[in-house]
Write a structure and sequence with these properties.
Elements: E1 2-3, E2 9-15, E3 20-24, E4 27-32, E5 38-42, E6 46-47, E7 49-52, E8 55-62, H1 71-75, H2 78-85, E9 92-97, E10 110-111, E11 118-126, E12 141-146, E13 150-153, E14 162-164, E15 169-175, E16 181-188, E17 195-202
Parallel strand pairs: 10-17
Antiparallel strand pairs: 1-6, 2-5, 2-8, 3-4, 3-7, 9-11, 11-15, 12-14, 12-16, 13-15, 16-17
Length: about 200
Amino acid sequence: MEVGPAHNGIRVEADAHSWVAIVGDGLELVRDFSGQPSAEFHIPPGAYEIRTDGRVRDTVTFHREPLSLPLPELLGTAADLRTLFEAPPTPVLHLDIDAPSRHPADGMPQLPADGTAFCTVTVRKTSPDGTLLKGRGHTDQVFLRTTGGTLLAADSDDRISSVRLRSGRARFRLVAEQAPRLVTMYAFTADAGLCAETQAEFI
């Protein structure tokens, strides 16, 4: 569907539907949930796709004077709209262990199973490209769990169950048990999508 330079809107008539949406450059820009037989969308000139869960009966483009600013100046191009509606990159949580990785096959971090050996684990919150996320919006409380061993603060013998990110990272210690086993550590935040896990072996 093409909105010409002299027009600034599309009217869609549809049947047996609950929504109608306008898609530009593969991105859904706006959706009407009214379920009415006719829906109007004010958009700048460009090429668009009409999507619905029903059947499109007819479409027509039109021009209507805006209340204040000219619509193309108010909304910009389809590319501008895509940038506006794109979600920011999803942050990633990492767990890094400084224990030696001596296993010849899988490089599993290993600690002596003596009840005193420990390693330092670093939690990092980054963008998808690995850049540390810093600032007031990234001081998450990271909750910790492990299937074995003991979790201690990085600089004391206090047992912990969470750490607070500072400048995109936080550290804690994992103390080995006195029995050989493979353990898994989990880190997660109140944001269900922000989590990580890693493993270590007591030998």
